[in-house]
Amino acid sequence: MSDVILQDDLTVFPHSKTVYRVQLTREHIQYGRTQGKPRERRILLADVVGCHCLRGRHVSDSAAYFCIYAYPFRKKVISGDWTRHRVCTTFRVKKTDDHDENHAQAEQWRIAVKCLLVGQSIGPQTALEAQLLPPSPRLLVLINPFGGQGKAQQIFRERVVAMLGESDIGFNMVVTERPGHAHDLMRDLDVSEWSGVVVVSGDGLIYEVINGLMDRPDWEEAIKIPIGLIPGGTGNALCCSVNYLLDEPFESADQVLHSTFVLCKSVVSGSSYPMDLVSVQTKSSRLFSFLHISWGFISDIDIGSEKYRYLGDARFIVGLVQRLFDLRKYPGHVSYLPVKGVDGRAMIHQVTEKRKQREKLKQSLPRPRSLSNQNGDRESLRSMALRPAQFTRSVSMMEGSRPRNLPPRSASVGQSYYSDLEPLTPGVDTAKEAALFNEQTDSGVPTTERMEANMANGRATGDDLHASDWRGDEVFSPHSQHGSGRPQHNHSNNSASNSQSGDSMDSAIDVSAMDLSADSPTQAHSHTLPNPDSQARRHGPVDSLLPPLGQPLPDGWVTLEGNFNLVMGLNVPYITTGFNMSPASQLDDGMMFLMYAMDTTRSEMSNISLKASQGRIGEVEQAGTGVVAVHAFRLEPEAGKGLITADGEVIEFGPLQAQVHPALARVLMWKPAEI
Q1: Which residues contact 60 (CB under 8 A, 6 or more apart)?
Q2: Angle at the Cα of 512 (from 510 to 516), degrees rounded to 5?
Q3: First to last CA, the chain
């Protein structure tokens, strides 16, 4: 049994009479009744994203509270699918009638839980002080308001912000205004000021981010900034692939919830994982791909279905049906450098079978008793959310970031402060104010009118939306390790200037200050990125396996010639939501899977598409098709027609060649389990 780090007899809100023996170990929080029928419950720290100290709103309440935010798995009754759901467990500490003493004990629990979440080594004898905790992480969030069905801002505001607040993750937000905006921003960004870059969009914005980071003299360091993923577009292939590799439900579950959980757990624990990038050389330029390079069938579907973008993921199904009725063939040559000792088709089939067995095992597991009932009936808690909140937040602040107009606290309770909200601030919507820190709701942190207005104007930042204590027009968020000297940004050109002092955080990202303002915010992102295709790239690793285009290939390469329906170099499992074309791909395996189909009929291509949508591409063994593990490949179209895409973005048509560069980029995720 793990060593018990903390132990105490506490009650669990809203029940104030039943006493529980609460124990904290390195793996979980366990609590059971001290009297009566024993009934132990566990909250796995692997499911926990954060812990906050709270205070009752009534002045007479001298108790202190700490809330554990967890997202455990739950098995659905009808479908049998496993999905995460939000569970908040609030423990009540009341040892004396002195609130400060009670809070000091609650703070010990908060610090201990946070230390374990960030991987800090603590034990029963560790002096639990706020100085043990690392600085609050700080993310740059990029949102493409034109991606997918145009709901990225709404997704972030309504679905993501709440969990970021629970995890004490600060952020600043930029709404992109034009094609290439994210590329330019990444090219000029001081990456040392951020814990990561989060993309709320489809794969197109990730493509801009990666190529912007690689288009810098310091690309070797810049590309190491980890990239976080929230699905906000139509494709979301990298996001699907990350969840697939981590065994997080994605296709049949809440995509945003699971992706946000992966993001928050990774940021809190400081986890990131390497990802291969593919260097792509065309006649006039060089770019970097992270998903796939495609010629023929898939490219035609992707670009041809752009006009159906309003359909969301269904646009690809419509495009697929159209292309099957107009199946095209493209003459050309495909050459590749195979990975020795790896049978691509057999490897994919083997991985697929192992995953099938794991899925059957998961489905056979019994449905556990939902932890959501541990504090009373779930519906009764939701009805309680309609009443004024019973808590206010006690937010841990880093040194030097104490907000204005709040008295200093005793050093014995650490760097924390209270907002009693008594009397309520005149002119503030008391219902929203009361709901802001109601830790029993499932809907997340509601925004104020000021926040909503800033969001609409593209000015909202982590300072507006960070779930820290809020009082009227004053919004505060914990300092990151970068102190108060961080850049101030704002999408609005006529925004009022804000104080730069250490206790003021009322500022938004000023994109214009970085000379990145757009000519017009009204045009949607196109598939052709202005950079880097407009000129030859100067930076990046040497493509040691590739001779110049047009030069003979060295020994060891294999060349295919014929009429191709489909050619794809796959770097990750998914090419879009619902299409797992390369189940055996890993983010850091140092190779691509080259898939091709030659002289196929409509029925054969329909079979390939069906198997791909089911993750069973390894079962396709018809003539003229192949799946090969490669280090590099060259594509030489003979006809002057067709589309070639990299990560869904149209690139220069003509001969190209590509090479895998292992572990160049990093993604905010933990290490996947081996299959």
Answers
A1: none
A2: 120
A3: 28
Cα–Cα distance measured from residue 236 to residue 148, given in angstroms and rounded to the nearest whole number: 10
SS (H, E, C) 226-274: CEEEEECCCCCHHHHHHHHHCCCCCCCCCHHHHHHHHHHHHHHHCCCEE
Residues 6+ apart with CB under 8 A from 582: 348, 570, 572, 573, 593, 595, 617
CA distance 145 to 369: 40
With a CB cutoff of 8 Å and minimum separation 6, the contacts of 422 are: 57, 59
CA distance 492 to 220: 33
Long-range contacts of 636-640 (CB under 8 A, 24+ apart): 636/332, 636/333, 636/334, 636/335, 637/295, 637/330, 637/331, 637/332, 638/331, 638/332, 638/333, 639/330, 639/331, 639/332
Q: Kindly give the pairing relationship between strand 227-231 and strand 196-201.
A: parallel
Distance CA 183, CA 177 (A): 12
Q: What pLDDT was estimated at residue 280?
A: 96
What one-character-per-residue DSSP string does 298-364 give? HHHHHHHTGGGGGGTTHHHHHHHHHHHHT---EEEEEEEEEPTT--HHHHHHHHHHHHHHHHHHHHH
In the numeric block, the tokens 């820290």 are attached to 468
Local mean pLDDT, 10-residue blocks, the chain (675 residues): 86 89 95 85 96 89 94 83 91 93 95 94 90 92 88 93 96 94 95 96 94 95 97 88 90 85 96 97 94 85 68 69 76 95 88 83 63 36 35 37 29 26 27 30 32 40 33 28 33 32 29 30 37 55 94 95 91 87 93 91 80 75 87 91 86 94 96 83
Structure-token pair, residue 305: 């279905």
Predicted TM-score (pTM) of this structure: 0.77
CA distance 219 to 656: 23
Q: CB-side exposure of 56: number of CA atoms within 13 Å? A: 16
Are the CB atoms for 656 and 333 separated by under 8 Å?
Answer: no
The span from the CA of 452 to the CA of 469, in Å, is 17
| Distance, CA of 84 to CA of 416 (rounded, Å) | 31
Rounded to whole angstroms, the Cα distance separating 69 from 107 reads: 15
Catalytic residue check, 203: yes
Tokens of 406: 């709040």
Whether the bond between 530 and the residue before it is cis, its omega within 30 degrees of 0, is: no
Taking the CA atoms of residue 520, residue 525, residue 528 and residue 530 in that order, the dihedral angle to the nearest 10 degrees is 40
The pair of structure tokens assigned to 514 is: 């970085």
DSSP letter at 412 equals: G
Q: Which one from 47, 168, 184, 203 is the annotated catalytic residue?
A: 203
Cα gap 176→525, rounded to integer Å? 9
Residue 337 Cα distances to 334, 479, 555, 628, angstroms: 11, 50, 9, 9
Q: Is the peptide bond before 423 cis (omega within 30 degrees of 0)?
A: yes
Is residue 106 within 8 Å of residue 66, measured between CB atoms?
Answer: yes
Asked if residues 512 and 189 have their Cβ atoms less than 8 Å apart, the reply is no
| Burial status of residue 633 (CB atoms within 10 A of its CB: 0-12, 13-18, 19 or more) | buried
